[in-house]
Amino acid sequence: MKKIFKYLFVGLMGCATLSSCLESALETAPTDSMSGTGLLANANAALVPLNGIYRSMYASWSPTGNTHQSFGISSYNLMAEVMGEDFIQAAQGSGWFWYDCLYMVKDRYTSSAWRSYDLWNGYYTWVSNANYILAAEESMEGDQTDINYIMGQAHAIRAYSYFMLAQSFARTYKGHESEPCCPIYTEPTVAGTQGQPRSTVQQVYDQILSDINTAIELLNGTTRKHITHINYATALGLKARIALVMEDWTTAKEAAKAAIEASGCRVLPVASFTGLNNSDAANVMWGAKIISDQSTMYASFFSHMDADGTGYANSGAYKQISKLLYDEMDAKDTRRAWWDPTDERNGDCGYMQNKFKFADTQTWTGDYIWMRVEEMYLTAAEAECRLGEEAAAKEDLNAVMSQRVEGYTCTKTGTALGKLTTDMTGSLLEEIITQRRIELWGEIGRIYDIRRLKQGFVRTTAMGWPTAALLTNRPTDDPESYMWVLTIPQSEFDGNANMNPVTDQNPVGDTK
């Protein structure tokens, strides 16, 4: 554990608000050096370390060799997008995300400059920092509502971190509950903390549920101070995401509906949130407001997305939509404006994206959007469909689609899904999933949906995929494959006596 947890308590000093955080992504110090600083003595002061955690969720702080593809939540979402079939990376470019796209990162687990280390270190850093805040609950002074605001967010951050660790370092929840997942820590960790063994998938999800339920309870009745903070509605949204993976349809429906109501957000027409770069938009439930002195320039989401900007996308590593998915849109679908089939840069690949654009190319700025209310409607629709509540499912689907396609109606029924994502059945569930794929393209990590749905996928040149990324010799058609399950970084085994590099390492190949 020593090597993983040397990056602790991020951005603490001089970071009383998010906008005043230090320009550097991480200011690291051992947690045991925090004693006596007073930062956790009262709820108001505790905003400093809390804001430090959030700052690292959109900053670039990975080791130098990996920095430009590691900028917190949005980089991990982008990683999971290029691992699927709908989100095309047209060329290698400078190399960033290309090896994620080709599933060629797992054998680099001994390096701190590759994906395994980055994800493990990132999420466990947030877990560790959340634990340190939670340990101060009994001694923290201040109004109880203010304390609840701090502690509720710490529980939510820990729940979110373990949820993403479980989705990255183990197979999907349903059917794999007894398989090894990741170690659980609920107490502050210091340099000499003994490492824990891997817990099972079920044990990790039990911890996730405990944390997110506590977060919801504590955050209810509090007022959010910043869009980057996880509030009551966002915590409900995270619970809905968790329930989808667990195939707990009733909870997914109830949490998504409650999140919609609590958020006060509304579905917007496409023209009202162009560029997806404004966290003040009325459909945004959670995001990060990026100001010019916190821009990470090349190492940023829009650098990799906006081909009209000055970042990596402009250099040829174009991000495009699959032609097959584009063709699933109605001719009147206003979301077609998010992509351009006529762009001369398309070449033989997919269609160039306009969905994500810099707000200001000169300052490299644009807000990161991590949760929109549209997702909650589509989540509720999927859950209701699976519960046999088709009328309600169509109503929630229409809440989004009425703002996308004039006169939209859906008469489909049933829950059939194809073995592959390209095997179309014509069911209502498939329609909901298809609209989810289009609506949330580039936002939440396509591979996570593919795996929870237990579908395989293929990439073809007809979709627009370059030949180098077709994965024709890989088992993408097998939902039980270990292809996407990341290897655990060697640094964890080096510092954790309770982790065996022979018996505890995930398969380096595609099968166990």
Give an account of the 3D structure:
This protein folds into two domains: 1-63 and 112-220, Alpha Horseshoe (Serine Threonine Protein Phosphatase 5, Tetratricopeptide repeat); 231-479, Serine Threonine Protein Phosphatase 5, Tetratricopeptide repeat, CATH 1.25.40. The chain has helices spanning 47-56, 73-82, 98-101, 115-134, 144-169, 201-219, 232-246, 249-263, 301-305, 323-327, 373-386, 390-401, 428-439, 446-452, 490-495; strands spanning 87-89, 284-288, 319-321, 339-340, 351-353, 368-372. The chain contains 15 helices and six strands. The radius of gyration is 22 Å and the shape is globular. Helix 6 runs antiparallel to helix 7.
Summarize the structure.
The protein is mainly alpha-helical and 512 residues long. It has two domains: 1-63 and 112-220, Serine Threonine Protein Phosphatase 5, Tetratricopeptide repeat; 231-479, Serine Threonine Protein Phosphatase 5, Tetratricopeptide repeat (Alpha Horseshoe), CATH 1.25.40.390.
Q: What structural category characterises the helix and strand content?
A: mainly alpha
Individual helix count: 15
Q: Given this structure, which CATH class of the largest domain is correct?
A: Mainly Alpha
Shape: globular
CATH topology of the largest domain: Serine Threonine Protein Phosphatase 5, Tetratricopeptide repeat
Cα-atom radius of gyration: 22 Å
Mean pLDDT: 91
CATH architecture classification of the largest domain: Alpha Horseshoe
Proportion of helical residues: 25-40%
Strand order of the largest sheet: 1-3-5-4
Report the uncertain regions: 1-36
Order of helices and strands: HHEHHHHHHEHEHEEEHHHHH
- Overall structural domain count: 2
**Percent of residues in beta strands:** under 5%
